[in-house]
Fold:
Amino acid sequence: MSAYEAIILTIITASTPLLLAAIGELVVERSGVLNLGIEGMMVMGAVCGFAAAHVSGSAWLGVIAAVMGGVAMSLLFALLTQTLITNQVATGLAITMLGLGLSGLIGSDFVGLPGVKLANVSIPWLTELPYVGRLVFGQDPLVYVSIGLTVGVAYGLKHTRWGLIIRAVGQSHSSAHALGYRVIAVRYACIAFGGATSGLAGGYLSLVYTPQWIENMTAGRGWIALALVVFSTWLPGRLAAGAYLFGGVWILGLYAQAMGLGIPSQLLSSLPYVATILALVVISTNRRLSVINTPASLGQGFVPDR
Amino acid sequence: MKKLLTAAAGIALASALSMSAVAADKLKVGFIYIGPPGDHGWTYQHDQGRLAIDARLGDQVETVFVENVPEGPDAERTITRLARQGAGLIFTTSFGYMDPTLKVAAKFPDVKFEHATGYKRTDNVSTYSSRFYEGRYVIGQIAAKTSQSGLAGYIGSFPIPEVVRGINSFLLGAQSVNPDFKLKVVWVNSWFDPGREADAAKVLISQGADIITQHTDSTAAVQVAEEQGVNAFGQASDMEAFAPNALLTSIIDNWADYYIARTQAVLDGTWVSTDTFGGMDDNMVNMGPFVNMPADVKAMAEATTAAITAGELHPFAGPVYKQDGSLAAAEGEVVDLGTLLGMDWYVQGVDDKL
Structure:
């Protein structure tokens, strides 16, 4: 494996959990809901995925359990914010705290146990191709899932009837309701989708990235995913670019250190954030674009007047 | 009927009193942890120390702990709560608890406090730490013997003296075997982020390092080493289960003896404020089993461990040269304790700048 391949592979592994968690949150926010509980859903996905894979010995069962763990947490969020109309910001934070605590409890018996790693894709001939084979045809399966989800969400939001309904609900829930759309049902579905991808992102950590369970192993990635959604101005293409930019700058920072270039490590550690802020500034100068895509009813609860 | 009730109440009261009398007889020992006991690293070892107190002195002592306490105002509140609840001895097990511990200690002069890795003491606050660098010297020697590439990768948390000291000691150990041995350092600026630790390990391996060691709290780096077929060392706790083929040995913090001794001192009324900087000689730093290495390397590691334990070998014995070529300790001298505690320079051969 050549040096550049190693660099690109490491960048993709670092970026994929961010992309997975963020693409779901993008759909959630497009439907007008702000779910700050990504971190909590991710960490529940991580522990459920690890536990299922360890008990059954199958990494794929782990992936399914990770998705279900994330969905379970997101449905709790949906129940509170959509049916009981609690404050979305406070509920999201509560979901994060609950997830961190509950995952520690569930995972207490799984600490220090060997994990099951999801095997990389291997296609005869194609994966052995020089230079590109390993990069294009030899990743772990969830990398392809994340790219497929991004393309699917981009297409779905823009070109399908369902995408139009989701955007309508996010722009003005009263109008969507008046048109006869079931605002709360749509939002439930979007929140569950966000929970699924967040759970998958957590599962990526405990089944691919570092196949083990450690308390709080998400280490703040949910918050970065949340920032990436805003960074992307709610556009899936930009979201993917942002996730890879963030992962890329972070990994290249590590390489710069290992090569002994003499750049202070603190500066290198802050570079991904600096890059994100700079990109945000550049994007926000284009006022029209950022206003057009912001869901107008983001974060507001909807109570139908009967 | 009324008489019966009074009698019943009297019995209940008496039994309650006797219960509290028993409870009051037991010394309550409190612990404040920076992370979860399940981190399999730093906090895990402190919790093992707490359990050792339970096992040895359980009939006279009751232990309690609070986990995941952030360094700062929350720590002060939590320590105060433990003191109010009647703890007679409180261990605060992270560097950042230093000032909160002192503040609470001033308000509770009868409660004894023990602060790990700090340097401020009062009449009822002791400090304690370990000479982890002694273990680093041993693993440095093992690294130099087993490495094919002559290059090791070191994952650092924060560039503070404790970590820099470990890096220097590791390289001095390695250079005592192979004077040309080189070391690459990558800082992840976190004590605990398994993903980033794994990334750093991958980066170092792709840069040619075939030995990975780390001064961070998780087991991620040794797992990457296992996966990529290079060797690694465990930190704070025995990590063999995570890398059965890659792990050569672990440096293990052993707080149990110290915790039992200090608790016993409080029970006996002989506790006084002290500073403890324990190492291999007083059993606070242990080496895990030496595995996955040839017999001659194992013999060398055991001999070095024995020499450090006996006080015949000091990792920072001269001549020690700083990275810029200046002399830190001449032949026959040893880098003094003050310099060790405030170490802010690399020795020669580190491929990094501070």
Observations:
- Residues 209 and 244 of chain A are 16 Å apart (CA to CA).
